[in-house]
Amino acid sequence: MADILKNRSEVAKDLTWDLNLIYATEEDMLKDLEEMQRICRHITETYRGRLDTAERIDGCLREYHRLTEIMTLVMHYCDLAVSVDYYDEHAQENNGKVGRISSQIESEMSFIKSEIMEQDEETIRAAMRLTQRHRCYLSDILREKKYRLSPETERALSALGRTLSAPYEIYNAAKLADMRFAPFTVNGKEYALGYSLFEDDYEYEPDTAVRRAAFAAFSKKIGEYENVTAAAYNANVQTEKTLADLRGFDSVFDYLLFDQKVSEEMYHRQIDRIMEELAPHMRKYADLIRRVHHLDKMTYADLKLPIDPDYAPSVTIDESRRYIEQGLSIMGEDYVEMIRTAYRERWIDFAQNQGKSTGGFCASPYGKNSFILLSWNNRMSDVFTLAHELGHAGHFKACNDAQSIFDTNVSGYFVEAPSTMNELLMGHYLLKTNPDKRFRRWVLSNMVSNTYYHNFVTHLLEAAYQREVYRLVDAGRTVQAETLNRLMKETLTAFWGDTVELTEGAERTWMRQPHYYMGLYSYTYSAGLTVATCMCDRIEREGACAVEDWKKVLAAGSTLTPVELAALGGIDISTDAPLRATIRTIGDMIDEIIKLTDELEREQTGRGGMTDGSL
C-alpha cells in the first residue's frame, strides 16, 4: 500500500505537467490578464449600444473571439495550478484574482448576446453570412433568444458567475483541503488513508479485511462532512432550478439539457434502459467476483476487485507509452505523434501528492496543448485511464485546429465518446496480442471492470440518483443529507438487488463525485461510450475508411448536434438500437469471462494450480 502522500514541492519534476507550455512565466500571464481588461474596455466603448448592423456584429465578435482566446489561457493557467495543489496559497490567490476579473469581464461582455438578440432575425442571419467563424455562435443566439432575460438581468447574472459556482468550490474545499484522514488499523498494522489512497488503492486491495476496513474508515470520515456537502449541493441544484424558472424552461431537466442539444427522451432512455437491462448482467459479474475471491458475501466494498489480481502486470509510466502508442496506432501516425509529444513535453501530471484533485481529467486550452491529470499507480487500469484522457486531447486537438473557439464547446452528451473510444481500442489491441485464455480473461475483465463499469455503472448510477434529486427540486423540494443518503441507497438497491450487500457507508457515495456540480453530466459517460462502442465496431470491421469518418467527427467540434455527429460516424442514436447493442456487448463479454473462468478452474484443478501471468 502506498505511503503517506508527499507535499507537491517534494514530487519529482518529470512526474508533473509543465504549465510553462501555456505561459513561460507568471509575469506573462499577468500581462495577458491586463490585455483581457484592455480588450474588454475597447469592446465596451466601441460596440455597446451599437450592435444594430451585421458589420458591427461581425467586428465585435472578431474582438470578442480574441478576448475569449486569452481568457481561456489565463484561466486554465491559474486553475490547473490549483488543481494539483489546493494547499498552494499563492496559486489560490492568483486563481481567485483571475476568477474575479473574469467574472467582471463576462458581466461586461454579456451585452453582446443581449444586443444581438434584440436585432431582427435577418440582421443576425446577415452577420452569419459575413464569416463562417461566427455562424454557429450566432445560430445558437437565435436558438437561445426565447430564453434570454433582459440585458440588465443577464449582466447581473454574469457578474455573479463566481458566486453561483461557490457550491462547487465549497465542495472541493471540504473534500480536498479540510478533510484529513486518520490512519486505520487491521490486525495490529496501521494503514495510511486519504481520498486518492482509498479510491486508487484500497478499493482494489485483495486483502478483504484491509479493503473493508478502509471502506468503513473512509465512509465514516466523509460522513462527518455530509451536512456541509449536502448544503453545498442543495444550493447548487436550487440555483439551477431558479435559473430554469427565470428563463422560462418547463423543467430543470429542459434547462440543463438545452446546451447539450439533446431531447429529454434521449436522456431518460439512457438511464432507464441501463437500469433495467444492464443490471442483470452486472449482478452476474458481481457474483463472479464473490466466487473467484472466495468471499463470505458480496458487499459494496468488494465491487472494484479485479477478477484475477495476480495476473495483471505492474506497468511503469515508460511502458505505458509503448502500450498506448501501439494500441492507438490504428488512428494514424499523426495521432501517435501527439501521444509521443504528450509524454515528451510533459502534458501529463502523473504525481501523487497532498492537495491534488482526485480522479482524472483533460483540459485543452484553445491554441495550446492539452493537460492531463491523473494519479499513477503502476496498474494497467492507469494505462486505460491515460488512453481515455488522451482521447479527449486528440478530440480537442482536432476540433481546436479546425474550428473557431466558439465552435469547440462540444455537447456533454457526445464529449466522452472520443475518450472511451480510446479505451476500447486499447482493449481490442491487447486481445490480439496473446491467445492465452487467462490473458484474454484478464483483458476482457479489465474492459468490463474499468471502461464499462466506470461509465455504464458508476457514472450511470450517479445519473439515476441525480435524476431523483432533480425530480424533487422540480417539485419545489429541498434536499438534505438524510434525503440524499436515502436516494443513493434506493438507486444502488434498484441496480444491484440482493446480489450485493450495501454495507454502511454505501449510501454516502453521492459525496464522492464532483459531477453533480456540472449539470446533467454523469449520464453522458454512458451515452458517449454507446457511440464509441458502435464506432469501434465499425473500425474493427471496416478499418481505414471508418477511422477517417471518425476523424471528421472529431474535427467537427460543436458545429453539429450529438445526433448529427454520431450520424457522421454512421451511427443512429435517435433510436435505442445502439444502446441496446452496447448492453448486449457488455453481456457477451461477461458471459465469456464466466466461461473462461470455468475453463481455467477446470484446468487448474487438473494441473494443481496456476502461475502468475505477464504480458
Short synopsis of the structure:
The protein has helices at residues 26-47, 54-83, 89-118, 121-130, 135-144, 151-159, 161-164, 166-178, 195-200, 208-223, 226-247, 252-258, 264-292, 317-327, 333-344, 380-402, 417-433, 437-474, 481-496, 522-542, 544-555, 562-568, 577-607, and strands at residues 184-186, 189-191, 348-349, 361-363, 371-373. By secondary structure, the chain is mostly helical. The strands form two sheets. Strands 3-5-4 form a three-stranded mixed β-sheet, covered by helices on one side.
Jot down its keywords.
globular, 2 domains, Butyryl-CoA Dehydrogenase, subunit A, domain 3, 3-stranded mixed β-sheet, mainly alpha, 615 residues, two-stranded antiparallel sheet, Neurolysin, domain 3, disordered C terminus
